[in-house]
Structure formats: C-alpha cells, structure tokens
Amino acid sequence: ATSCGKVEIADMNWNSASLMANIDKFILTNGYGCDAELIPGDTMPTSTSMAEKGQPDIAPELWTNAVEALINRGVEDGTLSVAGKSLSDGGEEGFWVPKYMVDENPELATISGIKKYAKDFPSSEDPSVSAFYGCPAGWACQITGGNLFKAMNLEEAGFELIDPGSSAGLSGSLSRAYEREESWFGYYWAPTAILGKYDMVKVDFESGVDAEHYKGCISEESCMDPQVTMFPPSPVYTVTTANFKKSNPEAYQYTTQRSLTNDQMNMLLAWMEDNQADGQYAAENFMFTYPEIWSKWVNKDVKAKIDNALDSL
Amino acid sequence: MDNTRETLIEIEGLYQIFGPDAKNVLPKVKAGASKEEILAETGHTIGLQDINLSVKRGEIFVIMGLSGSGKSTLIRHFNRLIDPTAGKIKVEGDDIMELPVKELTTFRRHKMAMVFQHFGLMPHRCVLDNVGYGLLIKGEKRAEWKPKAVNWLETVGLGGYEDQYPSQLSGGQQQRVGLARALCTDAEILLMDEAFSALDPLIRSEMQEQLIDLQENLQKTIIFITHDLDEALRLGDRIAVLKDGKLVQVGTPVDIVLKPEDDYVRAFAKDVNRARALTVQTIMTADTSKLEGISAKDVRDIFPADRGHAFVFNNNAYQGVLTKQQLDDMQDDDLLEKVLIKVPTVRRTNLLQDVIPLSLNTRFDLPVVNKQGELKGRVEASKLADVLSP
Amino acid sequence: MDNTRETLIEIEGLYQIFGPDAKNVLPKVKAGASKEEILAETGHTIGLQDINLSVKRGEIFVIMGLSGSGKSTLIRHFNRLIDPTAGKIKVEGDDIMELPVKELTTFRRHKMAMVFQHFGLMPHRCVLDNVGYGLLIKGEKRAEWKPKAVNWLETVGLGGYEDQYPSQLSGGQQQRVGLARALCTDAEILLMDEAFSALDPLIRSEMQEQLIDLQENLQKTIIFITHDLDEALRLGDRIAVLKDGKLVQVGTPVDIVLKPEDDYVRAFAKDVNRARALTVQTIMTADTSKLEGISAKDVRDIFPADRGHAFVFNNNAYQGVLTKQQLDDMQDDDLLEKVLIKVPTVRRTNLLQDVIPLSLNTRFDLPVVNKQGELKGRVEASKLADVLSP
Amino acid sequence: MIDSSWLTEFPDMSRRELLAIRQSLDSAYRTFSRDYGESIENFFDPLLYFLVWFENLLIETPWWLVLAAIVGLVYAATRSWKLCSGVLAAFLAIGYFGMWEDTMRTLSIITVCTILSICIGIPIGILMARSDRAKSIITPMLDIMQTMPAFVYLIPVVMLLGIGRIPGVIAVVIYAIPPVIRLTNLGIRLVNQETLEAATAYGATPTQRLFGVQIPLAMPTIMAGINQTIMMALAMVVVASMIGVKGLGQPVLKSITNQYFTLGLLNGLAIVALAIIFDRVSQSYAKRAQKHLEGTENG
Amino acid sequence: MIDSSWLTEFPDMSRRELLAIRQSLDSAYRTFSRDYGESIENFFDPLLYFLVWFENLLIETPWWLVLAAIVGLVYAATRSWKLCSGVLAAFLAIGYFGMWEDTMRTLSIITVCTILSICIGIPIGILMARSDRAKSIITPMLDIMQTMPAFVYLIPVVMLLGIGRIPGVIAVVIYAIPPVIRLTNLGIRLVNQETLEAATAYGATPTQRLFGVQIPLAMPTIMAGINQTIMMALAMVVVASMIGVKGLGQPVLKSITNQYFTLGLLNGLAIVALAIIFDRVSQSYAKRAQKHLEGTENG
Ligand SMILES: Nc1ncnc2c1ncn2[C@@H]1O[C@H](COP(=O)(O)OP(=O)(O)OP(=O)(O)O)[C@@H](O)[C@H]1O
Ligand SMILES: Nc1ncnc2c1ncn2[C@@H]1O[C@H](COP(=O)(O)OP(=O)(O)OP(=O)(O)O)[C@@H](O)[C@H]1O
Ligand SMILES: [Mg+2]
Ligand SMILES: [Mg+2]
C-alpha cells in the first residue's frame, strides 16, 4: 500500500461533498498511505478536467445527472470509472413548500392544492403572478424541473418559472422566505444543509414514480409530451479516473465501498450545520464517532492503521 | 504724480515663506536670516519679507526686481491667490484676509483682473471663450459679452483667431489672449505680471499706449510687473524695487534713476536709456531772465553780465538767441531780429532724447518755455552731458 | 562681420502650414494668398512661407518679428522638432530631413541645444537633473556631469537651488534652468527661443556677455530669437526680420536700423535706442587732415581753409583742437600747446551713447582715432544730431 | 500537541469561540433581515417598477423599432455613421443568432446600472478630489466594494430583498462604480494648478471651477473611469444572473454546465458587443465635447 | 406562424443550423485540445513549478518568519512604519481567525498574477500609446478580456490544461490585465507635449523618452491602472477557486452554498485586506519615487 502515491481528491463546495472528500482524504492517507490532496473546484470544471486531463483522481460525490453526457463519454473513452454510489439510496429531488404553510393549509402538501392556492405564492417582482423557484441555470434539473412544470400545467395555474441562477440564489430565496415565514414553492434536493436546517415538505405530485418516462422524456430537453411523475432517486456516484483505478486497485476498492445512506448524511449535515463545521472538522468527528459505519468500507489491516491515526490525533 | 490721490491698496508687514513648516521658520526670518541661509538650513524659500507699501487709486504702480525676488508672489497676494504667512492686505480699507468666501469671490470678479506670467489660459476653451471668461463667470450671457470680447481681441491684434485653441497660438499670441481677458472684465484694478514680456516692440508699444489710455480715461489702477526699465519708466507713476523678497525702494521713475537708494538700485538703473526716461524738467536750469525789446539799445542794459548769450522775447513771444558779442558789435538802433539766432524752444515735458539733437545742433542753451510761451528756464548742454554720462 | 565664414545651416524654400490638410493648402499659399485669407478660408495657419536663409559658422544670428510671425516655428525646424510642409534644411551640407532616426538623435545630441520659449523643463526632475539632462541623455555618468551642471547653475545665478523642483521656482529662474541646460551640453549650435525674455536687466546683461564670450571663445553658432531690439543689436552679427511667416530682411544690425528695406522694418527699428545701437563708425566723417607741429608757424600754412577748427598732432599723438581764430591771433613762435583746447578723442567702436555727452560738452568736432592713436576722422555734432533725430 | 506549537502553527482562535461569533453574527443578521427586509424592499420598489417597465418596453416593442431607436440615439450622441453601422450590424447578428430577447433584458438592466453608477460615481469622485478626509474614508470602501467577493454580500442581499433585478442592480453597481469614482478623483487632482488659479483669480466659485475647468480638463481620465465602469458592469452580467437576473448571463451559465461552448461563446460575444457599443458611444460622445484636444503641439 | 412574423419576432437562425454549428465547433475544439494539450501544458510547466514552490515556501516557513519577511519587504518598499504596523495587524488578525494557510495560498498566487499582469501590461500599454494602429487592435481585445464571462473561456482552458493553478493564473491575468494596459496608454498619451519635445530636442532616443519622461510623468495614471489591476486580481480569487486554485476563494464559496455568512465575510475580509495591502504598498512605493509632485503651485 506504500505504492499508493499522490492522490488528488476533488473538494466541491457544498457540505456533503466536502465531508466525503475529507473522509476520503483521511482514510486514504492514514489507511492506504496515499499522499492525498484536496483540490477545490466546481462540478463542471472538475469533471471536465477528470475526463480530459485525468486530474483530480477522485470525485467523491458527483451528481451524475448534471454531467451525464460528460461522464458517459468519459467512461466510453476509458478515461473515467464510476466506482460506486456515494449516497446509497441516491439523492432526493422534489418540489418543496415550507412546513409552516402546510400546517396552516394541509392541502398545500399536494400539487393540486398548490395549484388551487396559487395566489398564496405571489412573485416578489410581479405580485400578479405566482412564483415557482426552478432549478439553477444549467443544471440537469433545469430540464427535468422545466418539463415537470409543463406537465403539471403550473403555468396555467398562474405560476411563473423563476430561474434563480445558482444554487446560492435558490437557497437564498428559500431562507429569505423561511426566515420571514413567507410563502415559498420550488425545486430543491437532499441531502443538503438547507433541507437539514429548514423544515420543508416535499409536495406530492399524486402520480407516483414513472422511472422510465422520467428517463426517456422528462430528462430530455426535447421532450414533447411530458407527463407528471415524482422524481426517482438521483444517482450520486463516486467517480474516479481510469488511471487511478489501474494504478491503485486497493484504494479504488475502497472508493467502491464508501457509501452513506441519506439518513446518515442528513445527520452528519445537521451536525455540521450546528457547529458550522468545515469538511475537515466534520470528517474527523465522523471518524471518531461512527467507526461502525466506516469500518465496513475497509479491511482489518487498514482499520487498524486508521485507529492508530485516530488515537494520535 | 498727484499726491492727493487716495490710498487703494495697503500692505503691511507681509511675509511669505514657501515650505511645509512656514510658521516655524517665520521667527528666524524676522530675526534677519538671509534667503540663502534659510534655504540651506530649513529648505524653505523666502518669498517676501516685511513688505509695507500702498498703492493709490488711479496710479500705475510698477514692480521691478531681480528674477526670483518675489514680484509674482507679491502680486498674487493682492487678490489673495495665496495666503500670506504673516501680514495684512487691505483693499479700500477692508482686510481681504478676513473676507468670507462669497465676498472674496465678488471682490475678485468686480475689483481685480489679472494677467499671468505663464498666461494661465484655459486649454479647453477657444480664444474667444478665454477672453470672455471673466464675464462668463459673472453670469453674463455669451451674446452679451461676445461683441466686447471680439472687440478686445481686435485691439490686441488677434482678430480672426476667435475659434482657435490656445495650443494653436504662438507664445506672444497667448499672452495677448491673457491680456484681452483681463481687459475685457472692466475690473478697476489690473494686476499684470510681465504682461508684455513676450510681445514684439510694435505691439508692445501699442499695448503700452492702450494701458496709459485706460488709466487716464477710466482711472484704472494698474499694478505692473516688468523687467523692462524703459517700460517701467514710461508707464510707471511709481516704481517699487524688490530684492530677495524685501522692498528696497519705492519712488517715482526719476527718483529711481537719479536718486537710487543703494547700489542695488543703482546697478539696476544703470542701463536705463536716460534720454528716453528723463524729461527736460529734470535737468533744466530755472531762469526767467529774458531780453525784451526790438533794437540793441532796448536790451543793452539788461543783458546779463555773466552770460555769453541770452534769449530775446518780444510781446511775450520768443524770438531767438542774442550773444554778448553780437550785442557789443551792434549799433543802438540796429534791429535785433536781423542778428538773432534761431535756437528752437523746448518744453519741460519733452524727453531728453528729443532735446539732444537740438542741443547738438547749437552752441547755445535751449530755452524752455511753457504752453503759453513764457520762458521757464534753459537747457545747458553741459548738464545734459552730465546726466547722460553713465 | 567676417564674410569669409563658411555656411553652417542653409534653409531653402521652407513652408510650414498648420492644419490637418496642409499639403493641399500649400499651392494656395504658394499662389500668394495671405495669412488671413488662408485662415478664414481653410482654417489653416501659415507658419512660414518661402524661407531662404543661411547661417554661418560662429555667428550670432538673431531672428526678430511680430508676435506670431513664425520665429519659434522657424527655429524648431533647425533640429527638426517639426517637419516642414515643404522645403529643405541643410546643416553642414546634410539634408536633415533625410537623416535616419539614429543619426538624427546623434545630431541632436551633439550639434544642437535648445532653450525653449516656454522653458520645457521636466517637472519630475530636480533643477540639477534638469541642467544635466543633455549629458545624461548622452550616457554620461551623474558623477561626471554633476560638477559641470553645478558650475553652470552658478553661472546663471542659481547656486543653492540644485535640489528644488521646477514648480518651486519663479518664471525667470525656470528660464535660467533652461538656459543652463542648453549651455551645459557643449553643443556647437545653440537655439535660443526668447531665452532671456523673463530675466531682469542685471542678469540679462550678464547672460548676454556670457553668450558673447561663448561665441568668441568657443566659436559657437547661436540662433537667437528676441523681441528686444537693443539686445538684438548688441548680440547679433546678423538679424533676420520675419513678418507673417515671410522673411522681410536679413542684414547687419546697422543695415536694419539705417537701411530698413520696407516700412515694416522701419517701424520695427523706429523705437530702437540708436545711441546704444550705433557706433561712431556709422556717422563719422572720414578725414585724416591733421595739423602736425609745435608752434603756430608750423601749422599756419596747412590749416584747412574751409574749417573753423582742426586737430593738432605731435609725434603722432593727439594734442587738442586749434581754432582758426586762435591761429589768426597767434604769433608765429607761439607754442600751440598753450592754446589747444582739450577735446577728447573717440574710437570708431564707441557707442554713440558714450559720445553724446562728449559732443555736448564741446563746440567742436570730436576726433576719431584708432588703437595706435592715428586720426581716422571726426564726429560732427550735426551728423550726430541727424542720426539721433527720430 | 505541545505548547511551543505556535512556532510552526499560527496560534489561532479556538473553534468554539469562532463558532460562537459566527453563530451570533449569522443569527443577528437573520433577525435584522426579518425585521427590516420589508421596509428596505419597499424603498427600492420604484426602481424595480422602472426596471420592469423598461425591460418590457424593450422586449415588447417590435425589434425594428427598438433597433431604429438605438441607432438613432447612437447617431445623436456620436454623429458618426461608421459607429451607427457597426451598432446596426452587431444587433442584427445578435438577433440572427437568436439572442435578441436576452440581449434586450441585459441591455435594459445594464443601461440602468451604468447610468446609476456614473450619476452616483462622478459626484463621489468629485467629493473625494476636494477633501483629503473624504478620500481617506472612501478609498477603503472602494477597495472593499471591488474585492469583497460578490457572493459574500449577495446572499445577505438576497435574504433581504429576494432574488431578481434589485439585488442584481445593487451587485452590479457596487462592483462597477469604483473605477469611475477613483478616476474622477485622480483626473481632478491632476488638473493643472495654473489654469485653476486663473479661474480663481477671475472670481470663479467652486462650482464654476468644477464645471468650467476641473471636469473638462479631467475628462480624458474620467472617461477612462466610465469605460472601466461599463466594462465592470458587463462583466457582472453573469454574476447577476446567478441571483435571478434574466438576460445573457443565464445562457452563459447554462452553456457552461452543459459544455455547449459555442452557445456560451455566442452569448459571451453578445455581452462583449454590448460593452463595446456602450463604451464607444460614450467615448465618442465625450470626445465630441472636447474638441480642444485636437490642437497639437505648442509654439 | 405567418410570414409577416418578422415584424414582431426577430427572424433568427433556425435551431438546426445553430445546432450544427455548435456541434462542429465543440468537437473541433475537443480534438484540438486532445492533440495539443500536452505540449501547451509543458510550456507552462516552469511557471507551475515556481507557483508550487512559492506556495510551499510561504506555507511551510514558520508563520512568524513569513510575517517578518512581509513586514520587512513592506518597510523596504514604503519606509512607512504606519503602513507596516497596519500590515502586521491585518496578518495577525487573519492568523487569529484561522485563515493563515488559505491566505498564504492566495497571497502566493495573487503576487504572481499581479506581477505578471504589471510586467506584461505596462509594455503593452506603452505599445498602445505609441501606435494608433496597435491601439485600434488591442482595445477590442481588452474589451473582450474584460467582459467575456470568465466561465466561457475557463472550461476550454480547463479542457486544455486541467484544473489547478495554471488555468487559475491565466483566468486572473486575463481579467486583471486590461486596466493597467488601458491606463498606461492613457497616461502616456496625456503627457505634456512640451516636456516631451524638450527631451527630443536634446536627442533622447524613444527609449530614453519613454523611461525618462513619459513613464515618470504618466505615473499617477499608471498607478491608478495598477491599483485597478490589483483589485481585479483579488476579485477573481473566488472564480479561480472554482477551477482548483486553493486559497481564500474556496471557503467563500462553501460558506455561500452553506449560508455561513460570517465565515464568508471573514474570508472576504481577508481578501480585501490582501488587496488593500498590495495596493497601499505599491502606491506608496510609487509615491516615494515621485517626490516632485509634492511641490505645489508655480510662481
Ligand atoms: N501647433 C500649432 N497649430 C496651429 N497653429 C500654430 C501652431 N503653432 C504655431 N501656430 C501658428 O503659427 C504662427 C507662428 O507661430 P510661432 O509660434 O512660430 O510665432 P512666434 O513668431 O514664435 O511668435 P511669438 O513671438 O509670439 O512667440 C502663429 O500664427 C500661430 O498661430
Ligand atoms: N510654490 C513655490 N514653492 C516654493 N518656492 C516658491 C514657490 N513659488 C515661488 N517660490 C520662490 O519664491 C521666490 C520668489 O518667486 P517669484 O515667483 O515671486 O519671483 P519673481 O520675482 O516673480 O521672479 P521672476 O521675475 O523670475 O518671475 C523664488 O525664490 C521662488 O523660488
Ligand atoms: Mg514672476
Ligand atoms: Mg515664439
């Protein structure tokens, strides 16, 4: 395992990814003797760079929907390798409303209720229409969200699809509304710090999940006749470069194993939020507190080494 | 000069020291340290020290002095372009150091106009707008001041250049624009810092006449810095001479030339063209003893004993010169007019330069008469020679 | 002036027209349109038209003319600061319009130094560095040129100001820095654009002497623009007069004063102080007839019949003036020295201003002698009076 | 670890203290935004209405009418047919590549931002030039405005005002205004003292000095500031779109995440074209007003 | 829709054509980057090694040594104890709030970027000032560099060079270099013609004119350009962190996505502090070299 050498781990800027990256760094460094380094970067530049330049080596939490074409091409070209699921049950997407609104008017928990009370969601720039906060520009969910918006005839119901521009814009609009107990209706996903922090209710589309239609039409920009369907779980993978897989089979083995459930992740995120912790602090905390989780990802030798490292911390 | 004119500007104990810490250097200057010492010791430059002077209404007050002696600095105190380190400046009795900003502005607009040594034109305005600037500032409409500005431009010889920009003009043309700007404002007091230095002799003398006209007709008070002694003597009612920031002498042109107060002023006045600077008045011998009569016997008794020649008048009109010898050679009844020598008369206000050829052309004294033709004195060649000898 | 000197600078058919479309306006100018017409019609200003002149090595060549007549424009062609619209400029036979950039630079560095009308100092360099600029540019080390620069600064009277910046100096001081900068370069040709205009008379005459020294001792060629006629006459070997960009007359100072080619030059020269401008040479009557002898009989026969007085010499040394009457009254053996009148002698190079008092003090002509004391002529009061009458 | 660790590690604040500070600040801000958000929002309402109206005007008016108006304005400002035809060509290309509507949206918001920046910036620059005290107070604020990452203040602004045009305008103006302020200050401070003194001597009031001498003579530098302000404003288009401002920024963002380079490039070029048009028009308008600079050297 | 639709809708390119163009351009670029990426990368290797070395130097040297070196440098450049103590205080605060390492990383890359920008920018600005042709070519390029959204060219650059410091430096330099170029050009063009003419008359070569007259007299304007370049460089820190540049940008981004305002603010302030330090040190260094401006009016 001393042959592990230099490993670069992509450190994306949202909490769960950063936590994963730091966990990987800790384990690869202490358990596999790698010289692990975190490389900051956004999803797009990072995955582009991995596919085209083979650097960094590991993307611990990649929402592949967002960069599906790129990953697929990378896998085809033999530059990328999908190691395993980082979130075992996938990311959760949906349209959400604050709980306090549902408490006041339980009908708002379903899409039909939302449409009925569209007037309760006035847009701030033009109060005559209702606001639906869509997915940030350019994300894969912009297409799916857009198609569903169409499928549910939200426009006829008086809603306007507002592009928040970025996840920061989206979460900003959400917290603003939540802090003031105002109305909010829009797309969001989990596990995230925001959904951990704010009590939100996922709106029931009253349609169940039609995974096939979702894949075949809703997620295509050219979808002519979108039908209503709940979001199926969104795949969240650990992706590595093919190079890494080849030269570090042991470490690669670990990346295929490392995976958390949504519940586990939500718990960790809540802890991070409470402590305003950064990824490194949270990862150390995780390693101390939850040996039962991470010990399943590694073999005994490695575990011993890691325990050692934890003791000397 | 008319001594009864009232005082317009009065300056008392004015000091100007250039440098970051002027206030603290002031005591040293007052204690009498020299300009070089102060510069070497403290890095401060003395601009002016202990200036006391007054300018009377309607006079042309000329300031002269070596380059760097503080002339520009002094003139810039008159309209408070710089604040003195110490001292008072009163204009019409008001201390302008105490004027509030608003009144200072009004004062500058209406009382004073300035011609700058380095012209100070506005590069972004055309010549016409530069000339009208003073009026524009007062709030006059362009249509109102335009004819006036055009008129002044023509007076300074720049008709046709209205639409040029200063950078397209020659040095002297720029200076004339600055001149026209000052003249265009109708201010009572004109501050002129080497205002003619870049002008050729022809335009310069035109401008000098213009200035004298202005002073005579409109009673303007003019403070004029020049390096040209002839100009100073021609224009100045009084002349002040500065040296190293100190006032060395203030006096009439004749005083400066003939009674310099120290060697510095003497050196300064040495090169002056006295023939042009001085008038007959300054050298004539007062003497009203004339011979009145037609024939030899009329005058034989009254011919001055100690003179070789005398002036003959008839009916209060000058007739000519009679020598002692001629008289001696004449019969009692001989008519004087037959022998009289026609020596021309001069006036007290004539410049010496006009008198010299006359004097050279005769062996006799020249009679000095007044407007009415009455004899007032005579110009002796030897005195003329004296005053012209360097 | 020494006519055998070789030609240093030659200018042929030089035209300069200011404006965006000079080339197309040129034919109109050549066709003889006036400056005003061109300005009004095309907005172009004629700077120079059809200038032909040559400057000889070692002379002081003065350029005069009305303000705006093109003097600065002309002088700036000598080192090609501006390119002419048409015409040739040759220095030592080379057409400088055809010099490649590199040679032009060398030429400017070694051949010419310039004093600018508006000084052209570098505001970001202290006075010392300004003075040494020409040498610095040539690549000399500061240590090498510093003593020289300090020396020149002292010569122009600015010792002690080495570390000041130009903005801290008075106008005249700035001009002197510009002067020192030019003198410090050792260039063969000095271009001086109103180089003394801001100087006071004392420093100015010092500087004039400096210039004459330079020319005499180092054979520098100096091209000098001035508005001061006295200065022009004092310094100039030849004077060129410009009018509206045309060359009106080129000649010696005396030519300009006494033989003006047209009314313009006459008006220009009118105000000149002739007494200071002209020498005895210009007005003396050549006449070597002297009386040689000791007693009356020695000279009685040779006394000129048509004169009232004559100059007596003895052993080739001037003794005094003898009048006809005195001679008539004397015995043959009477010694002349008893009666001789001591009229002082003058030299041909004396300025008239020095001669006037002498002439005023005597009724007789003044004898003109040369260095050896030989009689060359006489100065008649009437001729002196003539030339001094305006 | 042992105590001498400060030799190698910076002795930083304990995590707990930091946490306490962070949390209390964060929640203080939350409270603030909850309490005052409403009234601050109302304050900006008129601007919002104007922005919406202007955008709708540009979008709903037929394109050829808008184009004619733009070209007309450009001609009025510059009197240059060359520039006009350039503008025409640029807008036709923009339309042809299907970016007309986005361009109109960006045009509307950027016009407002640029005009706001110039109208606020120049007076502040003047103030700075007049008083050294003002300068020493304003300079660090400008430094903060230019270097504090937009997001740091954007999110609080979003929490206060929601996403959309108003926070967009605020962000753009904050980022774009410093150059014009700084260069106005510099330009005025560099004005020749002699010329200014001449104005004073003739009794010019401070205002007359300012408008008659300082600003005209500082114009080239001020125009450089305006140029930079325009550039900065257009550089912020994408950032503004991250908080929900519609326009050319959104397709750029979209194209990035989807690796549609060409799309990004086209929209980027449309932004560049707007920048160049704004800049050239303002510069040539200013140049028309400064004919004196054409005169060359001095005699 | 009927044919007269062009009256209300801009007659744009058909979607299909657009798509074809897009796809061919995209794949052409991909092929290019695969073929030449390697060699282009090698070209930048020396810079990369230097960057890495410099960053490591700053991080691995004990903090008090680094701090002493920085303060020493500041003193050498400015001779101002006031500034030195300000710098000291700023860095101590940064360390105390636990941002030492990130600050060092940002410091290292920004130092390099700023120096690069100035060293490349000033010569280009000079070139622009000398030749109108160069100016007319360079100006639009600068417009593009300043307004083309960084994202548009970042992804191609990442495809070519991967993420990390080099693309970061490229992005920062592209964005930060225009102000110094523009203002160098402006400053030189505004230099008094008479002074320049005097230099010419004494036989100054173009180079001597440049370094002896033009640049010193243009200094205040050039320094304004350098100030803006520093500001722009630090404004890009966050964008750089999106493509793998470590430093203060990353915590800013994280704090935004996670709504840790205080954290964002602190890191933002550290960026601001760096900007102010860079700026003040360079300005006061330049001022020391221009004593002549202290002399006031003229006599
Ligand atoms: N850059 C320029 N642009 C346009 N016209 C100019 C320029 N420089 C000079 N002129 C014009 O050329 C003519 C001659 O100018 P020049 O400076 O040579 O005069 P000058 O004889 O030196 O006058 P002065 O004695 O006033 O200095 C003037 O009419 C002036 O208006
Ligand atoms: N702004 C300034 N800073 C420092 N020293 C100055 C300043 N202005 C003038 N001086 C100094 O003050 C003295 C007087 O200057 P001033 O300009 O009044 O002289 P001047 O008599 O007008 O000379 P000139 O005839 O040369 O114009 C000079 O020694 C000069 O160096
Ligand atoms: Mg002066
Ligand atoms: Mg001239």
Automatic annotation (TrEMBL), chains B, C:
The keyword Zinc-finger does not apply. One of its GO terms (molecular function) is ATP binding. Keywords: ATP-binding, Cell inner membrane, Cell membrane, Membrane, Nucleotide-binding, Transport. PROSITE patterns: ABC_TRANSPORTER_1, ABC_TRANSPORTER_2. Residues 33-269 form the ABC transporter domain. InterPro entries: AAA+_ATPase, ABC_osmolyte_uptake_ATP-bind, ABC_transporter-like_ATP-bd, ABC_transporter-like_CS, CBS_dom_sf, Gly-betaine_transp_ATP-bd, P-loop_NTPase. Transmembrane segments: none annotated. It is found in: Cell inner membrane. Gene3D superfamilies: P-loop containing nucleotide triphosphate hydrolases. It is a peripheral membrane protein. Its EC number is 7.6.2.9. It catalyses: a quaternary ammonium(out) + ATP + H2O = a quaternary ammonium(in) + ADP + phosphate + H(+). Belongs to the ABC transporter superfamily. The complex is probably composed of two ATP-binding proteins, two transmembrane proteins and a solute-binding protein. This is Quaternary amine transport ATP-binding protein. It comes from Marinomonas vulgaris.
UniProtKB/TrEMBL annotation, chains D, E:
The keyword Secreted does not apply. Keywords: Cell membrane, Membrane, Transmembrane, Transmembrane helix, Transport. It comes from the Bacteria. It is found in: Cell membrane. The keyword Kinase does not apply. CDD domains: TM_PBP2 (cd06261). Residues 103-282 form the ABC transmembrane type-1 domain. The chain crosses the membrane at residues 57-76, 83-100, 106-129, 150-177, 229-248, 260-278. Gene3D superfamilies: MetI-like. It is a multi-pass membrane protein. Pfam families: BPD_transp_1. Belongs to the binding-protein-dependent transport system permease family. This is Proline/glycine betaine ABC transporter permease. It comes from Marinomonas vulgaris.
